[in-house]
Amino acid sequence: EVPQAKILAPRRDAILKNDMLTRFTRFGFALSVLVFLAGTIMVSVTIMGSVREKTKEIGIFRALGFRKTQITKMILLESGIISLFSGIAGYLAGLLISIAASGYFNYVDSAESFNFAMFLVVILLSLLSGVISSIYPAIKGANLDPVEAMRFI
Question: Which of 60, 62, 42, 40 has the alpha carbon at shortest distance from 50?
Answer without folding.
Answer: 42
